[in-house]
Design goal:
A: mainly alpha, B: mainly alpha, MetI-like fold, elongated
Chain lengths: 332, 286
């Protein structure tokens, strides 16, 4: 058998493996979203809290409660309600809000663009910055730069994001008056207004995430730098920048991508707090308002969206790290 | 050898290695805990008493840090909020450790189907962002103290479970556990007398980490208005109540936020130091 033919066979094998891995991952993703929907449903409908009671308030008569239960279909057994609810969800029908009486899917689609804008811009700013900072820190472990980066990031991790936001607002909005303290995004806001309103929320949100990602990138790269392959490269006389950028970074990609995925959790909880703080009309604010009013269908819709996005992004990161790491790809 | 030395006086060894930063953090933490415990005797006014009709009054002799949006004394509000935040999060963390360690040790000792079921349930809960679980439960049940404590404890216990299980897994395979099993010791004895003492060091560090996490989480819920309900307040709610003051040049929302950071930074630095101490006693992994 000629060498090129062997090469071809090996490549074919890898491709087959990859498609198998990806199909398996997608299947896992579908199952996870199903489990998430079960948890969301169970959490909101099976817990002893009574939706009818929540709508009518404490002074409700038993007849009125029975009436509402029948109207909302709450007198049916739980598994039937779940199938009904999930079936509607698949058609994009998430029910109607108990408070405003509008469709949940309309409310969510109105608000989602603002949240995706906030989260997206934060990710675009934070991810490259923290990878660069992590790399700089790992060039000279325990050097002056590394120690200062490590001290600053440890402090930032311990600080709640609202402290960062409050300090930013008091400096840039109250003291200097350069930037707006509230981000009231309207559909007709132009690019300049939008950018001005997003600076403070994005900065506040980025701080904590950058701190986490920088620390983890540093650990991942340093871990890689102690491997025999890198030792070999050092002995071969590979220059330092090449060592770091080509040899260490390419092997550390998988853990770094996992780190980015892990930080999506901070991004999601951060988005909720930051949107409330800056009065930014996004999904996080919508969900907190729904929870405050105990607007169950709206809570379900928002929770499903947040959780599904989180699960799918995690899955995506998982898949990439498997593709990037042959040791996981061929478990022996 | 190291085991023997550690037994002769682990606390003395630890205390001898205290660095200046660790001492400062420890003193800050002890001071804040004393402040929280002694709140009724220390605080200058009642936290719910309205002293003036003016919002965000500047600092004066009667109100050291000024007044809040209703004209209540900020110092007293802060001391009582600190008491509530530390008290509730301490209960939450202890409860989370009780559930998490019990389940984690059980999973490691029993293995098989128990381990699989418990691990899968925890996987499912960890697959969701913690804040979403909290929002779903509070949305369904409304916010009250028992709901808050149980929800936060269960969310935290999933993380404790993973650490406890991993630690116990390493201990379960050792000879002395095998010996205890052969001797016919029961499950409770193995968990309490064989695994617990050997996992205690790392678990103590994990306790600190979980405690800061609980403080940040509870403050975030308080800030969203979904935690402790007025007129009582935790540190997060104090920030929310006084946010408007920022625009009038008052620093009222800054104090509780700084207090939260002071606690969490101190604990984190102290835990960092403690972990370094553990590392010198444990074989180095790298």
């Amino acid at each position: 058998m000629s060498l090129s033919r062997i090469k071809l066979l090996v490549e074919k094998r890898i491709l087959m493996d990859l498609s198998l891995i990806i199909t398996r991952r997608i299947a896992i993703g579908v199952v996870t979203v199903l489990v998430v929907s079960l948890i969301v449903f169970a959490g909101t409908e099976l817990l002893p809290g009574n939706v009818a009671q929540a709508i009518l308030g404490p002074g409700a008569t038993p007849e009125a409660i029975a009436n509402i239960n029948a109207r909302l279909g709450l007198n049916q057994p739980a598994h039937i309600r779940y199938i009904h609810w999930f079936g509607n969800l698949l058609h994009g029908d998430m029910g109607t809000s108990l408070v405003s009486g509008r469709e949940v899917s309309v409310l969510i689609s109105e608000r989602s663009s603002n949240t995706f804008l906030l989260a997206g811009v934060t990710a675009i700013v934070a991810v490259p910055l923290s990878i660069v900072l992590g790399l700089i820190a790992s060039t000279k472990p325990n050097g002056l730069i590394d120690k200062s980066i490590s001290a600053i990031t440890l402090t930032l991790i311990s600080i709640p994001d609202f402290l960062v936001a409050i300090i930013l607002v008091s400096i840039f909005s109250v003291h200097f008056g350069w930037l707006p303290a509230l981000s009231k995004i309207r559909p007709d806001s132009n690019f300049f207004e939008l950018a001005r309103m997003l600076v403070l929320p994005v900065t506040a949100l980025s701080f904590t995430i950058i701190a986490h990602m920088t620390r983890m990138t540093r650990t991942a790269v340093l871990n890689e730098l102690t491997s025999p392959a890198i030792e070999m490269a050092i002995l071969k006389g590979v220059p330092k920048y090449r060592l770091l950028l080509v040899h260490a970074l390419s092997n550390a990609i998988a853990p770094i991508i996992n780190v980015i995925a892990l930080n999506l959790a901070y991004l999601i909880s951060g988005v909720v707090v930051i949107e409330m703080l800056f009065n930014l009309n996004g999904l996080g604010k919508l969900m907190v308002e729904a929870v405050t009013n105990r607007d169950i269908p709206l809570v379900q819709g928002c929770a499903m969206l947040f959780c599904a996005v989180y699960v799918l992004l995690n899955l995506f990161a998982d898949t990439i790290s498997i593709i990037a790491n042959p040791r996981i790809r061929h478990p022996k | 050898m190291t085991k023997m030395q550690a037994k002769s006086g682990p606390f003395r060894d630890l205390l001898q290695n205290l660095t200046p930063t660790a001492i400062i953090c420890l003193l800050i933490l002890i001071g804040l805990i004393l402040l929280a415990i002694l709140a009724p005797w220390i605080s200058p006014h009642m936290p719910t008493k309205i002293l003036t009709n003016e919002s965000y009054q500047l600092s004066s002799d009667t109100m050291l840090l000024g007044g809040d949006y209703l004209g209540r004394d900020m110092v007293s509000r802060l001391i009582y909020a600190l008491r509530i935040t530390l008290g509730v999060t301490f209960i939450v963390t202890v409860l989370a450790f009780f559930i998490g360690c019990l389940m984690g040790f059980l999973a490691a000792v029993l293995g098989g189907i128990w381990d699989t079921v418990l691990s899968r349930v925890v996987d499912a809960l960890i697959a969701l962002p913690a804040i979403m679980i909290a929002l779903i439960v509070i949305g369904a049940l409304g916010s009250s103290l028992p709901v808050l404590i149980v929800t936060l404890a269960i969310i935290d216990s999933t993380r404790v479970f993973r650490v406890a299980r991993a630690l116990a897994m390493n201990i379960v395979v050792s000879d002395f556990v095998e010996a205890a099993r052969v001797r016919g010791e029961d499950l409770k004895w193995i968990m309490w007398h064989e695994i617990m003492p050997n996992a205690l060091g790392p678990l103590a560090a994990e306790f600190g980490i979980r405690f800061t996490y609980a403080i940040l989480f509870m403050s975030a819920l308080g800030f969203l208005g979904l935690g402790i309900q007025p007129p009582h307040a935790d540190l997060g709610l104090l920030i929310r109540e006084n946010m408007q003051g920022l625009l009038f040049g008052s620093y009222a929302p800054l104090y509780p936020a700084l207090l939260i950071s002071l606690i969490t930074i101190s604990i984190n630095i102290f835990v960092d130091w403690y972990l370094q101490q553990l590392d010198t006693a444990l074989p180095n992994e790298f």
